């Protein structure tokens, strides 16, 4: 008598991923290489910072260890290969400019003390595009990204609701670390919301009623949180994203009608104090302070056009030149403008590279959508739209905040390049059939 055949650990079908079945997702995650697990762990420790929330576990550099283990284990991942992309050249060139500006900085010691920040993003970028190389991995990573952001957005939503949706100048904040400031938190939400909407539009045809309602909470809590931050910059970023999608929509009348209803509802709940802030834009003390900082930033560019005052040297240089502050401020603060930050700290060279990287991402997302249409992949098509939406929102909001060396933009770049590579693979597989 023959022995029964051993059960085969059958790979989870992509259809089960589309349906977001918890059991199938968990089974699929267990089938992925350990390098992918460590990459996901890194994002968790970097974005949520549980080690800061619970000091009892703050005994090891969890984020750094996760990133290092991801790099080491990726060597044994047979699917992880070197990815050729113009994005590689852009981030390397940007890093070289950072190194040069650090060497010739106003105070080089400040630059070298913080150089590890951007080294992290360079390593993360190359690791991400090498490891997140399949549609399944990208979908799993997107779900983790949504979960971490939803953890913060539901906190923002409930905090706003607890105070009766009333206005406060300090708004709400996210996790400690990169999102402890209300404005920076708001920018992260402008990236999260369009990506979540794109995910829903792509896959809701596979979901039942309750699963749809659950996922609808992602963009809803995200949008309300943007209002709760009291950040005009983040709110303008959301408006820019909405206008972007209106321009791209094939159903213009229907889209405008839906957005009109949503916009009217938003206006109705917007606190009077927030409306007053918009009416006073350009004339209030905050606007005057920003304009003074931007003006000083432009003077810095004129004085040091090639490499600026040096990576992370803005505050030191500002305090040296203006010991009594800039404008009506009695002290120096951040540039409150990512573009001024790039130009003043890294010179025109760094500014042009930063803008070129933004334009490159738009071009690459366009090519990704072309590939997705050719391979008839609805998920990749919509996710490329979502990445565009987040990029529009963050690019506009960046006019009011200094986030050049924050993770948001560089994670977007990695996701954009990875998604494009996955779309190219699917085209090759389609042609081989």
Could you explain the architecture of this structure?
It is a single chain. The chain starts with 13 loop residues before the first helix and ends with a helix. The protein has 433 residues and is mainly alpha-helical. Helix 12 (232-248) packs antiparallel against helix 13. Helices cover 72% and strands 0% of the residues.
List the topology elements.
Layout: H1 14-18, H2 22-31, H3 34-47, H4 50-53, H5 62-74, H6 86-103, H7 108-113, H8 115-131, H9 135-162, H10 182-203, H11 209-228, H12 232-248, H13 252-269, H14 272-279, H15 285-303, H16 314-321, H17 338-375, H18 378-397, H19 407-432
Helix pairs in contact: 3-5, 3-9, 5-8, 6-8, 6-17, 8-19, 9-10, 9-11, 10-11, 10-12, 10-18, 12-13, 12-18, 15-17, 17-18, 17-19, 18-19
- Strand fraction equals under 5%
- The global form is globular
Order of helices and strands: HHHHHHHHHHHHHHHHHHH
Radius of gyration: 23 Å
Q: Which bin fits the share of residues in helices?
A: over 70%
Instruction: Tally the beta strands.
Output: 0
How many separate helices? Answer: 19
Distance from first to last alpha carbon:
40 Å
Give me the oligomer status.
single chain
